[in-house]
Backbone:
């Protein structure tokens, strides 16, 4: 999730745990610090853009390492404020602020390596968009109210309510995703993909809410993309078919170093990728984040020639959707209007 959401969650959790045992500003401050610490790994340059992608949300988001980090952080905070008698309560507050960060990140589609150092598997539920105001605002308002009222009992209850509302919204996202996934699986099987398996289907929010969902299905050398709003009237799921670039993907496989770089993207994306050509550059794109033809994570690996010529290093060539065109479509489609995507 975005940094503001993680700060708000860490602060809200810490305030809820510490209650009136310490000044509410202390609990909010250190909860916010703990809630943002895991994302400091964005400042680490691993040498190329593919490694920067697959190693973000790795060791810094591991539940084991964050649990160990809670110990010196608790010692520092209790010593700084002279609250050694509260070390158990501070320890619980800071540990929860730390570990709820990667747990929340796991609900996005990016991929969070919770089990490091034992496993590098990138867990990704994909039930919430990376920025969703209906997640952030309840936590933010609850903390702000507690700070403004200086930890009065009613303000602490407001913080609790804010925490609960955010969690309930996240739960609603998981339920909505499950519903849309089942509907999409049945619809696509009825529309010519009878062998489609659940692991070949991606359902994730199209943006900023859990009302509009993007559906991506893998079909051999092609992938299908469509959208389903919870406000859609009953009817078929409309999808478009696109090539995944099987020939180019196979050509990358003949280049040892380049194929190793492409393999990282294939694994990290759980197989949801395509290979295409743009400006004579052969690139591999993660299909999970973005929408055809714009994807946040695309990497040029070779130059088009006969045979392919590998680039000295991967080149990030991801692109963003034109918001001036996309936002009007988004709001119309979210309301259930059958309008075509702006691509």
Residues:
């Amino acid at each position: 999730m975005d940094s503001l959401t993680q700060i708000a969650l860490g602060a809200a959790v810490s305030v809820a745990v510490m209650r009136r045992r310490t000044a509410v500003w202390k609990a909010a401050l250190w909860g916010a610090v703990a809630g943002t610490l895991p994302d400091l790994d964005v400042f680490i340059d691993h040498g190329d853009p593919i490694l920067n992608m697959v190693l973000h949300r790795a060791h810094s988001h591991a539940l084991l390492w964050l649990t160990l980090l809670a110990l010196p952080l608790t010692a520092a905070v209790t010593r700084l404020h002279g609250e050694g008698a509260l070390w158990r309560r501070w320890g619980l507050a800071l540990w929860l602020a730390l570990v709820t960060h990667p747990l929340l990140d796991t609900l996005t589609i990016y991929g969070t390596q919770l089990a490091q150092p034992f496993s590098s598997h990138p867990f990704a539920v994909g039930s919430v968009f990376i920025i969703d105001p209906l997640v952030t605002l309840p936590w933010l308002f609850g903390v702000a109210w507690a700070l403004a009222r200086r930890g009065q009992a009613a303000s602490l209850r407001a913080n609790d309510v804010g925490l609960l509302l955010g969690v309930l919204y996240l739960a609603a996202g998981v339920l909505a995703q499950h519903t849309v996934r089942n509907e999409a699986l049945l619809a696509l099987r009825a529309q010519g993909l009878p062998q489609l398996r659940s692991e070949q289907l991606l359902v994730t929010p199209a943006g900023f809410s859990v009302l509009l969902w993007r559906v991506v299905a893998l079909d051999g050398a092609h992938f299908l993309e469509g959208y389903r709003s919870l406000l859609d009237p009953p009817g078929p799921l409309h999808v478009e078919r696109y090539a995944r670039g099987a020939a180019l993907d196979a050509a990358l496989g003949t280049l040892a170093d380049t194929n190793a770089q492409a393999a990282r993207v294939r694994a990290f994306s759980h197989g949801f990728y395509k290979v295409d050509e743009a400006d004579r550059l052969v690139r591999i794109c993660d299909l999970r984040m973005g929408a055809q033809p714009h994807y946040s994570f695309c990497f040029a690996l070779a130059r088009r020639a006969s045979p392919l010529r590998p680039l000295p290093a991967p080149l990030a060539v991801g692109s963003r959707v034109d918001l001036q065109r996309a936002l009007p479509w988004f709001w119309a489609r979210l309301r259930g209007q059958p309008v075509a995507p702006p691509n």
